Amino acid sequence: LDLELALRHALEHGEFLLYFQPKVNLRTGRISGAEALLRWNRPGYGLVFPVEFVPVMEETGLIVRVGAWVIDEACRQIAQWSASDVGDVRVAVNVSSRQFVEGDLEGEIRAAVSRHGIDPTLLELELTESALMSNAEHTIAVLGNLKQLGITIAIDDFGTGYSSLAYLKRFPIDKLKIDIAFVRDVTVNPDDAAIALAIIGMAHSLHMQVIAEGVETPAQLAYLRRHRCDEVQGFHFSRPLPAAEFGEMVMANV
Ligand code: G
Ligand code: G
Ligand code: MN
Ligand code: NA
Questions:
Q1: What pLDDT score was predicted for residue 57?
Q2: Residue limits of the EAL domain (predicted)?
């Protein structure tokens, strides 16, 4: 309860901020965008990570309002970078299941895109399988409208949720994000390798892109590149960074 109050206070007093972790295009070797990751600069505690507070926000429903703030803040940052020497950066935002089901995602995105005057193709959403599976008609309608706007739709933690592969055919999905659980041992565990390769092959056959998360070693990177994974993200390249540091990394990454 104390934590819930503190989180409401945090939203009203601007204690949340976004960090940005680079995504790298394996064909060009260049930074292709970033995942925005929520942080809480809690007075007296320092920087608090999502694992400590996102579950509470999910339980209390506060994630719906904080999620709207994340979208607005991501668009504000995209606009700031576009107007600077950093240039256009595609930013992926995590959307929780409750935010997708209970919130007005489409309305919030339209409002944020127009408020900050950004190109909507610079915005990407990372949705989990569970968010999409709760109401198929709602999912089809919302994703269809977002896609028309030019938003990229990615499935986060792919392969770890409860879902049906049929939804890949029914929903307008652009990208699958291979969960870290299959990436960690991809070069040493044949089962993980088989799953990762199956995801890459299926994604490409369905004309979707594929990104691997949690890439930490040169061996994982080489394996994923050899097997035509499109993008990678992970500590091998960079931890999540404050916006200013991410901008410098982009400018250095000619
Ligand atoms: O940043 P970190 O690696 O600690 O993130 C841990 C988890 O928190 C990830 O699963 C990530 O999806 C989730 N998370 C981070 N930022 C957000 C956010 O803005 N909204 C939601 N719903 N989840 C987030
Ligand atoms: O579930 P989601 O994909 O949103 O999770 C993102 C989380 O993964 C963040 O907490 C981020 O810090 C973490 N992360 C990013 N890269 C790596 C990595 O290379 N290794 C590990 N162990 N975690 C990572
Ligand atoms: Mn994510
Ligand atoms: Na993940």
A1: 97
A2: 1-254
Q: What is the ipTM of this complex?
A: 0.96
Atom of ligand 1 nearest to the CA of 38: 16
Residue in the structure block whose two tokens are 């056959």:
205
Give the chain's radius of gyration (CA, Å): 18
- Which residue's CA is the closest to the ligand 1 atom numbered 15? 37
Position 207, amino acid = H
CA–CA gap between residue 254 and residue 252 (Å, rounded): 6
**Could you give the 3-state DSSP secondary structure of residue 161?**
coil
Instruction: Determine phi and psi for 213, rounding to 5 degrees.
Output: -105, 160
Strands 16-25 and 231-232, how do they pair?
antiparallel
Q: For the chain, which domains are there?
A: 2-252 (3.20.20.450)
Report d(CA 129, CA 42) in Å as an integer.
31
Task: List all residues whose CB is within 6 A of at least one atom of ligand 1.
Answer: 37-38, 49-51, 54, 63, 67, 70, 94, 96, 240
Give residue 5 CA to ligand 4 midpoint distance, Å.
28
pLDDT of residue 67 exceeding 90, the answer is: yes
- What lies within 8 Å, CB to CB, of 38 at 6+ separation is 16, 17, 18, 19, 50, 54, 66, 70, 94
Mean pLDDT of all residues in 130-141: 90
Instruction: Determine the pLDDT at residue 254.
Output: 74
pLDDT for res 110: 98
Residue 174 · residue 153 · CB < 8 Å: yes
Q: What is the pLDDT of residues 21-46, one digit of tens each?
A: 999 999 999 999 999 999 999 999 99
Q: Work out the burial of residue 167: count CB atoms within 10 Å of its CB; fewer than 13 is exposed, 13-18 middle, 19 or more buried.
A: middle
| pTM for the predicted model, two decimal places | 0.97
